[in-house]
Amino acid sequence: MRYCTKCGKEIVGNKKFCTNCGAKLEDADRKDSSTTKNRAGKNAKLIMLLVAVAFVVIAVVVGKNVLSSKSDDSYVESSEEKNSDKDQNDEMTEDDKSEELSEKESKKKKKYDKKATDIANFKYKVTDEGVCITKYIGTEREVIVPNMIEGEKVTSIGEQAFAFADIDKVTLKEGIIKLGSSAFSHSALYEISLPKGLKEIEPFAFYMDASLKSVDIPATVTYIGDYAFSESGLESVTFNQGKELAVISDAAFSACYSLSCDVVIPGNYLTIGGGAFYKDPITSFKWEKATVKGTKKLSVDAFRNTAVVSVVIEMEIPSVPETCFSGCEDLESVILPDSIEKIENGSFSSCEYLESINIPDGVTSIGESAFWQCSNLTYLEIPSTVEKIEDEAFYGLTGTLKFKGGKLPEDISESAIDENANVEVSN
After folding, report:
1. Which helix (H) or strand (E) element contains residue 68?
2. What is the pLDDT of residue 61?
3. I want to staple 247 with a disulfide (CB 3.0 to 4.6 A). Which of 125, 271, 351, 392 is the partner?
4. Could you give the percent of the chain with pLDDT greater than 90?
C-alpha cells in the first residue's frame, strides 16, 4: 500500500502522479526513502549513544571498585603501620612486662596440665641464699615445686607457703634445704617427697595435716622443729642415718594418734625434745648408739602416755628424765645404757605392765615415784652405786627388790619402798 508523501492520499495502482495533489510519486518515494534513511541514521546514533552510556556506567562502577580496593589497601597498610608501631612500643616495654606476660601464659597453659609446675603457680622472692617460695597460688592438687626460677636455685619453702592449701601431693626437688615455719600446716596434704639435701624442718611445718600418712626424713636433716608433725595423720615415720648432729625438738611428733609403728632413731640424733612422741601409739622405740660427737639428751615427757611396748636405748644419755615414760601402760621391757646416772621423778610411773628393766651400774639416784605402781615388776636389782632413793620410788611394787653391795643406800626415804615388797640385800 502506497501513500502520497505530499498530501498523504492513498495511491491505488502504479500511478506516477497523485490524483489528489498532482505530486510526482517517484520524488515522494525518494523523499520517503530519504526520510527512512534519516530515521535509520538517527536510530544508529541513538544506539551508539546508549552503548557509550553503558561503557561510561561500567567505567564508573569499575572505577569505584578500584578506588575501594585502593582504599582497603591503604587501610591495611595503615593498620600494619599502626600494628608495627604498637609492636615497637610493646618491644620497648617488653622487659617491664615480661614477668606479667609470662604469668598470664602460664595460667593459660596450666588449665591443660595435670600437675602444677609452672612458676605462675607460686609467689616467690629472690634472696642471697636463693629463691624462697612464699605462697602457692595454684589450683592443682598435685604440685611439683621447680628447682630453678629466674636462673636461681629454689632453696626454701617460706613460712605458711602451703598452709591451708587444698593439695594432695607435693614433690620437692633437690636443692631445697629449708621448710619454713607452718609451711604446710593445716593443709590437705596426703603425700610429700622430701628431697636429699634438706636440712631444716621448722616448727609447725606439717602441724595438723590430718591426711598426711607417712614421711621419710632424709639423712641430711639436722633439725626438726617444735610441733613440726604434731597432730598430723602420720601412720609411719622413717629416720635415715646421717653424718651430722641432728635434733628432734619438743613435741615434734606429739599427738599423732595413728602413728602405730616402730620408731628407730639413728645415732646422729643426739637430742629428743620434751613430749616429742607424747601420746603416740608407737609399738616400740630404739635409739641407736651415737655416731657423732655432741651433748646427748632425752627430755621430759618424750614418750609419755604412748602405747610403746618395748624400749631399747643405746644412746649414751646421762639420765632418764622426769615422766619420760610415765603412763605407758603397755610397756613391758626396757633396756637402758650403762651411761645412765639418774632415774628421775616419775620416769616409769604407772607402767603397770612393765616386767623387765635393768638399772645399770653407775646409777646414783632414783627419783620420786620413779617406778610408782609398776605392779607387774616382780624382780628388780638395785646396784651398789645407788646412793639415794626418794619418796614412793617403788610404791605399788610388791615383788622382790634386791640391793647389791650388802646394804641399803644411806639416803632412802621411808616411803620409798612399798610395805608389801620383798627386800633382799646381797653382796
Report:
1. helix 25-92
2. 47
3. 271
4. 72
Amino acid at residue number 381: E
DSSP 82-126: HHHHHHHHHHHTHHHHHHHHHHHHHHHHHTT-SSB-SGGGEEEEE
- CA distances for 127 relative to 53, 144, 146, angstroms: 83, 21, 16
Predicted pLDDT at 327: 98
**pLDDT digit string, tens, across residues 129-140:** 999 999 999 999
pLDDT average, residue stretch 147-160: 96
Q: Strand, helix or coil at 49?
A: helix
Do 200 and 217 form a contact (C-beta atoms < 8 A)? no
Long-range contacts of 413-419 (CB under 8 A, 24+ apart): 413/389, 415/391, 416/389, 416/390, 416/391, 416/392, 417/389, 417/393, 418/394
Question: What type of residue is 284?
Answer: S
- Cα–Cα distance for residue pair 275/250, rounded to 1 Å: 6
Q: Which residue has the cell 640385800?
A: 425
Which residue in the block uniquely carries the three cell numbers 617444735?
A: 226
Alpha-helical (H) ranges within 163-237 are none
Strands (E), 176-332: 178-179, 191-193, 200-201, 214-217, 223-224, 236-239, 246-248, 262-265, 269-272, 284-287, 297-298, 310-313, 319-320
**Beta-strand runs (E) in 195-331:** 200-201, 214-217, 223-224, 236-239, 246-248, 262-265, 269-272, 284-287, 297-298, 310-313, 319-320
Residue 416 has pLDDT above 80, yes or no: yes
Q: Residue 394 above 50 pLDDT?
A: yes
pTM: 0.73
Single out the residue of 307, 195, 322, 302 nearest to residue 247, CA to CA. 302
CA separation for the pair 168, 143 (Å, rounded):
8
Give the C-alpha separation, 316 to 321, whole Å: 14
Question: Where on the phi/psi map is residue 130: left (φ > 0), alpha (ψ -120 to 50), or beta?
Answer: left
Dihedral over Cα of 240, 241, 242, 245: its sign: positive
15 burial (CB, 10 Å; 0-12 / 13-18 / 19+) is exposed
Residue 232: which of 265, 187, 272 has the closest Cα?
187
Residue 352: burial class (beta carbons within 10 Å; 0-12, 13-18, 19+): middle
89 pLDDT exceeds 50?
no
Phi/psi region, residue 116 (left: phi>0; alpha: psi -120 to 50; beta: rest), is beta
